[in-house]
Design the sequence.
């Protein structure tokens, strides 16, 4: 058997080699059904409840990074050259509980207990990431974990109690083996493209972006999977068969982030978590939106490139990126081409991506210091919910206070993320006043004909869009203006 016929990774303290991997098999099913490691639970099977949370270690920029992920939608074929850590790995050799587990016991953080292993793993990931996280960081780390017994306060109390402990100060199964694991994962990184399975059940793990281009040239209808936060639901909820599946989450040449005076370039394989600091340094007002994209597990898995590539009309990142004037680079064996992000979306389910092309990177221009910008997400639940609509606004004012340029874009209002060109025209050239804004709201009726669904009615969406323009005006005027110079708001 050749190296290119196997998926290799670490599970806790064990080396795993697999030569038979279902193309749509999930990490959770493999853990529970094949390995009988039932500490990791299945709840929602769609990345919402967090009962299936495990940690996955990977090399990122030469460093070993551990992140919480949803095993229920993480596909097994994406695990090559990673270290999977489950709740079974936390206890000491003598059976002693890990400090995170002990804190949950001491603070009565478990009621029925079904969700507890997921909470343990999310808090363990936070505990590994740094010392003394405050309550906001704890709550962000737990966004993706639901407790049906409503036991959040004892869980947060446990996290606060254990936060003062440094990982290196006490027994820890990861810290004591970090150097050895880092070396092992480096050796497992594919140097040749890995191919598994036969017709109807094929997996491809390309060794580089060049190899990815070659694979897609030969298989233009292949399903490309980065974080599987969307594709995972095709498998667990729609029971779709995919062949072949091409995994790209490991490709370092798609994970570059480069800041220049002109703006920010982000590789298509960069996760929300990786991109957050760089994006929010460029545009601080983006942070509240990114903090509401799924839970921490989803942000650790999902990529901005994937959010764009799948063309969803309710993706959270396209509206603000379009408002900011972002451009997209597409790549194939024939070369690269660039286009404005707004032109990528053609119609529902249709994007300007030619056979064999893939999204390689995104460029976000640096905004002018005086520009006004905001993005608002409206959803039924504040955290971990899909948008009913998401609106982004960017304005340039002239020296007289009139609107010199306006970009308004919404998701959830049409079949694609779409600019409100009639609203923009109604604002441009006019003074930035409430009277101008009120007059411009009528133009929304010419830009959008939204649909009604279980998230919101068409009438609600249209009214909310109009009110968000008014909110943007109120937040950018007067002594209490919160959004001047791209400032961050909570």
Sequence:
């Amino acid at each position: 058997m050749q190296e290119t016929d196997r998926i290799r990774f670490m599970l806790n303290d064990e080396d795993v080699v697999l030569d038979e991997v279902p193309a749509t098999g999930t990490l959770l099913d493999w853990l529970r059904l094949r390995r009988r490691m039932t500490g990791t639970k299945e709840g929602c099977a769609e990345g919402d409840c967090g009962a299936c949370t495990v940690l996955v270690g990977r090399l990122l920029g030469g460093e070993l990074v551990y992140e919480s992920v949803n095993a229920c939608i993480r596909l097994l074929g994406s695990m090559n050259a990673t270290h999977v850590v489950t709740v079974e790995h936390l206890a000491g050799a003598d059976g002693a509980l890990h400090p995170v587990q002990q804190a949950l016991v001491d603070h009565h953080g478990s009621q029925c207990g079904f969700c507890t292993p997921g909470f343990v793993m999310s808090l363990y990931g936070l505990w590994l990431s740094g010392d003394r996280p405050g309550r906001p960081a704890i709550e962000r780390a737990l966004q993706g974990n639901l407790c049906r017994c409503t036991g959040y306060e004892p869980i947060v109390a446990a996290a606060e109690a254990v936060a003062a402990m440094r990982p290196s100060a006490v027994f820890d199964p990861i810290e004591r083996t970090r150097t050895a694991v880092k070396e092992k994962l480096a050796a497992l990184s594919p140097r040749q493209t890995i191919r598994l399975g036969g017709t109807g059940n094929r997996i491809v793990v390309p060794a580089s972006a060049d190899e990815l281009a070659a694979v897609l040239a030969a298989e233009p209808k292949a399903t490309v999977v980065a974080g599987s936060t969307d594709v995972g639901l095709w498998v667990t909820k729609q029971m779709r068969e995919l062949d072949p599946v091409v995994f790209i989450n490991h490709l370092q040449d798609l994970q570059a982030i480069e800041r220049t005076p002109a703006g920010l370039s982000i590789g298509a394989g960069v996760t929300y978590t990786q991109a957050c600091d760089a994006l929010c340094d460029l545009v601080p007002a983006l942070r509240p939106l990114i903090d509401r994209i799924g839970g921490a597990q989803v942000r650790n898995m999902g990529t901005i490139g994937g959010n764009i590539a799948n063309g969803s009309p309710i993706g959270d990142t396209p509206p603000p990126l379009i408002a900011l004037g972002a451009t997209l680079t597409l790549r194939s064996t024939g070369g690269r081409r660039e286009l404005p992000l707004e032109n990528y979306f053609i119609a529902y389910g249709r994007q300007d991506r030619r056979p064999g092309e893939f999204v390689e990177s995104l460029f976000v221009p640096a905004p002018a210091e005086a520009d006004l910008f905001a993005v608002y997400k409206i959803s039924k639940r504040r955290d971990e919910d899909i948008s009913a609509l998401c609106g982004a606004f960017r304005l340039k004012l002239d020296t007289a206070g009139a609107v010199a340029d306006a970009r308004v874009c919404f998701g959830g209002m049409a079949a694609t993320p779409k600019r409100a060109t009639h609203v923009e025209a109604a604002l441009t050239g006019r003074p930035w006043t409430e009277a101008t804004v009120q007059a411009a709201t009528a133009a929304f009726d010419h830009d959008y004909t939204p649909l009604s669904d279980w998230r919101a009615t068409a009438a609600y969406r249209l009214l909310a869009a109009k009110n968000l323009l008014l909110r943007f005006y109120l937040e950018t005027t007067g002594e209490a203006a919160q959004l001047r110079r791209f400032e961050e708001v909570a």
